[in-house]
Design goal:
This protein has 15 helices and 2 strands. By secondary structure, it is mostly helical. Strands 1-2 form a two-stranded antiparallel sheet. The chain is globular and about 65 Å long.
Length: 419
C-alpha cells in the first residue's frame, strides 16, 4: 500500500509537469530549455525512485514524492518567471537528487555527524568567517548582501550548509546532556538559566545569530538559526521557560536591530504600513498582495498572470506567483504538501523517542524546512516582516535546493534507522 501511494504521487506529479510544460510551450513556443527542465525532473524522479527501491526499500514512502512535487512546482514557476535561470535550476535538481541519494545510502553518516560534531562546528564557523571576509553577490549590484562564496562562475551560499551543521551539532550535544527530561523523566533538572550545559549553547546561538545579522545583514538566516535552536532546546528540556527566554531574547534582538540596522528598520516599517510607500520602498510587498488578490480561487492560469511585476519574484516572492497563477487552490496544494512533509518528518522523530540524538536530529531538520517556509510565506503575505529567505524546494537557488535535498536524504536515512 505504501509503495502504491508513492507511485501514485509521483505519477500525479509527473502528469502535472507534463501538462504545465506543454501549456508553457504552447504559450511561448517550444524550446530546448523547456524540454531540458521537464526531462531533468523525470530523470530525477525515475532514477531516484529506482535507487531508493533498491537500497532503502523500507523508507518513508511519502517524503520523496512530496519533495518532487514541490520541486516540480518550483521548476515550472522558474521556467515561467525567469526562463534564463530554468536550465540552471534543472541542473541543480540533478545534482541535488544525487546528493539526496548519496546521503540516504551512507549507513554510518548520521553517527559520524555526532562523533565529529566539534570538527563540523569549526568547519561551519570557518565557512561563515570566510563569507564575511570574502563574500560576493552573483548579481554584482552595489550594496547588495554578499552572502556567497564563488569559484569561477559557480556560487554557493555557506549559510545553507551551516543550517545542517548546526542542527547536527545541537542534536548531538543536547542528546548527551542529563537535562533531556523528555527522554529521561527520572533526572532532576536544574533551572535553565543556572545550567551551563544548556546556557552555553544558548549563548553560542545568540552570538552566532547576532554575528550573521551584524556582518551579513541577513535577517532571515539569523532568525532561522535562533528559532530552530529554540525548538530543539524546548524538545530536549521539555520546559516552557525555554520558550519564554527565547521570546524575550528575540524581542530584545529585534529592538536593538531596529535601532542599529537600516535593513531591519526598512522591513519593519514597510510591514507595518506598506501602502504609504506603495510605489517606493514597499513596492514589492504591495505587488505581492495584489498578486494574491488577482489569483482569487482558481488563479489566472499558468503564463496568464502578471507576477513579473514583483521584483525578484522567482526567488523571494515565488509564493505570490503561485497564488496569482494557480489561485487559492494552488496555495492550498502547496501548503498541504509542505504540511504533509513536516508531519512525516515529525513522525520519524517520534519513532526514535528512545534514541534522543536521532529524535532531535529529525526534529531539527524538519523544523528547518517548516520554519523557513513560515518565515517567507508570512513575509510575502505581510503577516510577518519580510526576511528574504527562500521557500524550500520551490524558490530559485542552487544552494537552497541542494541543502533541502540533503535534508530529505537524512530524513530518509532516519526513517530506516529505527528499523
Amino acid at each position: 500500500m505504501a509503495r502504491r501511494a508513492e507511485t501514485l504521487l509521483l505519477a500525479l506529479s509527473g502528469a502535472f509537469v507534463a501538462v504545465n510544460s506543454l501549456a508553457l510551450a504552447l504559450l511561448r513556443g517550444f524550446s530546448l530549455d523547456g524540454l531540458f527542465v521537464a526531462l531533468a525532473w523525470f530523470l530525477a524522479a525515475g532514477l531516484g525512485r529506482a535507487w531508493l527501491d533498491r537500497l532503502l526499500p523500507e523508507r518513508d514512502p511519502l517524503l520523496f514524492p512530496l519533495t518532487l512535487f514541490m520541486t516540480a512546482l518550483g521548476l515550472l514557476m522558474i521556467a515561467r518567471l525567469a526562463p534564463t535561470f530554468a536550465s540552471r535550476q534543472a541542473l541543480w535538481l540533478i545534482v541535488s537528487c544525487v546528493a539526496l541519494l548519496t546521503t540516504a545510502s551512507v549507513p554510518q553518516l548520521l553517527r559520524r555527524l555526532a562523533r565529529y560534531r566539534y570538527l563540523l562546528l569549526i568547519f561551519g564557523l570557518a565557512l561563515l568567517i570566510a563569507t564575511i571576509l570574502m563574500g560576493r553577490n552573483p548579481s554584482g549590484l552595489s550594496g547588495a548582501p554578499e552572502l556567497w562564496l564563488g569559484i569561477g562562475g559557480l556560487f554557493f551560499q555557506p549559510s545553507e550548509a551551516l543550517k545542517i551543521i548546526l542542527v547536527a551539532f545541537l542534536a548531538s550535544y543536547l542528546a548527551e546532556q542529563a537535562q533531556v527530561s523528555a527522554f529521561n523523566h527520572s533526572m532532576k533538572t536544574e533551572r535553565l538559566w543556572l545550567n551551563p550545559r544548556l546556557a552555553g549553547p544558548l549563548a553560542l546561538m545568540w552570538s552566532l545569530s547576532t554575528l550573521v545579522l551584524v556582518w551579513q545583514r541577513d535577517l532571515g538566516t539569523a532568525s532561522l538559526f535562533f528559532l530552530v535552536f529554540m525548538v530543539l532546546l524546548y524538545v530536549a528540556s521539555g520546559r516552557s521557560a525555554v520558550v519564554l527566554m527565547g521570546l524575550l531574547l528575540t524581542v530584545l534582538a529585534m529592538v536593538i536591530a531596529y535601532q542599529l540596522f537600516d535593513v531591519v528598520r526598512l522591513r519593519v516599517d514597510i510591514w507595518m504600513s506598506p501602502w504609504e510607500e506603495a510605489s517606493g520602498r514597499a513596492y514589492q510587498i504591495v505587488q505581492s498582495l495584489m498578486a494574491f488578490a488577482a489569483g482569487s480561487v482558481g488563479g489566472q492560469g499558468v503564463g496568464q498572470g502578471l507576477p513579473n511585476a514583483i521584483p525578484v519574484v522567482h526567488s523571494d516572492f515565488v509564493f505570490a506567483a503561485v497564488a496569482e497563477e494557480w489561485g487559492l487552490l494552488g496555495v492550498v496544494a502547496l501548503i498541504g504538501a509542505l504540511l504533509a512533509w513536516v508531519l512525516r518528518g515529525l513522525k520519524i522523530a517520534l519513532r526514535h523517542h528512545e534514541r534522543p540524538y536521532y529524535a532531535l536530529l529529525a526534529v531539527g531538520l524538519t523544523s528547518l524546512v517548516a520554519l523557513q517556509s513560515l518565515l517567507i510565506m508570512g513575509g510575502v503575505l505581510k503577516i510577518l516582516p519580510l526576511t528574504g529567505v527562500t521557500l524550500p524546494f520551490v524558490s530559485y537557488g542552487g544552494s537552497s535546493l541542494l541543502v533541502s535535498f540533503v535534508i530529505v536524504g537524512m530524513l530518509l536515512r532516519l526513517s530506516i534507522e529505527e528499523r
